[in-house]
Amino acid sequence: MRVLFTTWASGAHLVPMVPLARALLEAGHQVRVAVPSECAAAVARAGLVPVQIGALPMAVVRAPDAPRRPRGIWPTDWPVRPAALTPEQHGVLRACGDRQVRIAEAMAKGLVAFARCWQPELVVHDAGAYAGTVAAGALGVPAVGQLWGSAAVLRLDRQRLEGPPLPGYARLMRRYGADPAREPDLWLDPCPPSLALPSRARRLPVRFVPHDGTSPDETPSPYEVRRAGAHPGRSEHLGHPGPSGHPGRHAAASNGRRGPGGGPRRSGPVRVCAAWDDAGGPPEAVRAALWAAETRGVEVVRVGSAAEGRPPAGPLHRVLPGCRALLHQGGGAAVLAAAMAGVPQLVVAPRLEHQLNGARLARAGAGMYLPADALDATRPGARAAGARLALDLFALLEQPSYAAAAHALRRETLAMPGPDKAVRAVTRLAGPAV
């Protein structure tokens, strides 16, 4: 069977698709990954075959300012209550959807041309790559959407989330002979059920499989801990799951000294991880919180732009098993990596999807959440906000309820079906003869 994957960006868009692509290859199917030329190297590094379908103009890719910094208070379950949103908030969502349609328009010609030549029996696309549904509709084959770890199935291609297709998207579908009402036949969803919002879409839970964007053979980070942490509420480090998916056992004894917030300190360092995706690095308040934690004896391990000029510690999923908390923006990959590690999370969320993930984590008791816009950008204000963030971070380290909820989230995540089960589900969509 020939399966065509497509996405418009590497990183968080490509990474969730890699495990299924590899599982399909192992099952004997043919796989190609059609991407803009700037993503081809990332596909090849993942051990997959890229197909270049042209470059995306930067003007198309650049996100409008409003969706990047949404103002005002949004309902924590806004994707399932669009009627509760203001006209201005619907305008933000419309700007996001129109941007994704422009990206789909830039991809569609090359993607459909290759698809008509290669004749795949199935198209798998990331949640924001609407061109994948266009190509599947043009060929009359099933389409599968790959979610990234968001709490919701976001239909930004729809007017007001639940209405008819956006006009530009409808025109694009008709241009290639596809039905504008066509939707993916199945969504692959790595979000743990306790974090997910309800949806009428047909979803298949698929366990998150960590991947650092290179190859199946990954070198452990120096921070990876192969010791154990096991019972919620105890002073123990979390273990890295072995082949069976369960951690080993190791209890860290207290040495009688006091920890960062006055509680018993472990014999080893109290370690937290700070991960940031934006090129500019964390806000000043986040930097102040990390500095405050370090002055109290906490070891801060930095990943991504949070490393701030220093070599990053390593892939996030290999750093987290040695940490007792994660401070980050709330991106789906980071949320799922921390869920797999059983680590409580402090989310300082700059964007809508980040805020949604943070709110769901807080609701599950596995973390805390703050919109980035709530932080004071002035220097004195940033110091005060940093002190409050540090107190939140210490609460995650000290209050057993957060560790207990994070462990429960880990168990739930590990119980989800793996990519091998997804292979059987997606190939059945193409018909019993496949």
TrEMBL record:
Please report the stretch or stretches of sequence annotated as the Erythromycin biosynthesis protein CIII-like N-terminal domain.
Answer: 23-215
Establish whether keyword Glycosyltransferase is in the entry: yes
Q: Where is the Erythromycin biosynthesis protein CIII-like C-terminal domain?
A: 315-426
Does the UniProt entry include the keyword Glycoprotein? no
Q: Which domain of life, per UniProt?
A: Bacteria
The record's region (Disordered) falls at: 207-270
Q: Write one Pfam family the protein is assigned to.
A: EryCIII-like_C
- List UniProt keywords, sorted A-Z: Glycosyltransferase, Transferase
Kindly provide the name given to this protein in its UniProt entry.
Glycosyltransferase
Q: Which family does it belong to?
A: Belongs to the glycosyltransferase 28 family.
